[in-house]
Sequence to fold (351 residues):
Amino acid sequence: MEIVERNNISEHEQVVFCHDPASGLKAIVAIHNTSRGAALGGCRMWSYASEDEALEDVLRLSRGMTYKSAMAGLDLGGGKSVIIGDPHTDKSEQLLRAMGRFLNHLHGDYIAAEDSGTSVADLKVMAEETPYVSGITEKPSLTGGLRNGDPSPSTAFGTFQGIRAAVKHQLQRDDLKGLKVAVQGLGNVGYRLAEHLAEAGARLLVCDINPQQVESAINKLGATAVSPEEIFAQEVDIFAPCALGAVLNDQSIPQLKASIVAGAANNQLAEERHGLALLQRGILYAPDYVINAGGIIDIACERQGLDELHLNHQLCGIYQTLLDLFARSTREERPTNIIANLMAEERFTTH
Ligand code: NAD
Fold:
């Protein structure tokens, strides 16, 4: 196994390249910042067009994890890893084991979790070689029984708390009864979020490219279906993006009729300037990495051996964090995405 270490790439503490010819593993681990603790972040597998593209992705994603964990108040730093390859055709037990052994060289400075292209089952294979993986333990659920390491239910619940905070700040309301919410994407997070919203008395407009998910939301949650193209322009109070990145852009923002954008999707703003565009239209934007931190909170609680009650308490903390952030944004008349970055940077130190 060949390990190449490159220090001081941009602002990162450590970037390590790994090549294991026997299994075909080519991977990069980027550790952005460990001032708050070990760098925890997903291990992504993707068929990158080039090593440079993979490097760019891992540098960007690991930096994002530093900000996310800091805003979630966790004693964790930011890191991420990428395995270069097609998760459908290039993944093998040998490759996952090699990745696990590779993580041992970092002595716990980086802890891997599930991400796009990897599953809890894959992480369990890595865990046979290394203790430096997370999010794989079965744990008791508050609703009874056991649940696996999948953090999506926590992401959905945390996002629901964030929507409550946005409603409090923007509409001065403590409940969601009768409010109209457009949910874009009914996957692992979006569907569960829709369940919380329906339970709270909100009226749902939903879209997904998977008709089965939409059908289920219509039948079980009383939702109304709209096409993916029409979701932005709905007459709603809240737009909740829970599918793709870059959905807040020059084309979509002018269409929005909602006064709140709050959802779980990562990287919702196509560019940072779109945060200002939302503010100028009087739309309150809940910064994505703050509102969708439930998953990382879940994994952090698992690592600390905390039970579901503690987890719930920490997830509910997203409500107050966002209220504080919104208040500062109003006070300073600056976009919420800029305030989120400032607040995060006040919570970690750079070298
Ligand atoms: P998922 O793949 O389970 O769900 C995504 C859903 O979006 C799918 O049902 C898909 O059919 C649908 N979709 C795709 N393109 C669409 C389109 N154009 N219009 C409408 N629907 C479309 O993913 P997930 O785990 O639910 O994650 C959703 C988002 O939240 C992603 O951006 C993810 O990065 C982010 N996120 C997830 C977690 C987590 O714990 N799973 C944590 C933080 C952030």
User: Anything to note?
Assistant: The two ends are 30 Å apart (CA to CA). The chain has two domains: 2-67+76-136, 146-348. The pocket of nicotinamide-adenine-dinucleotide is lined by residues 151-152, 155, 184-190, 207-210, 213, 228, 242-244, 264-266, 292, 295 (CB under 6 Å). The chain has a mean pLDDT of 94.
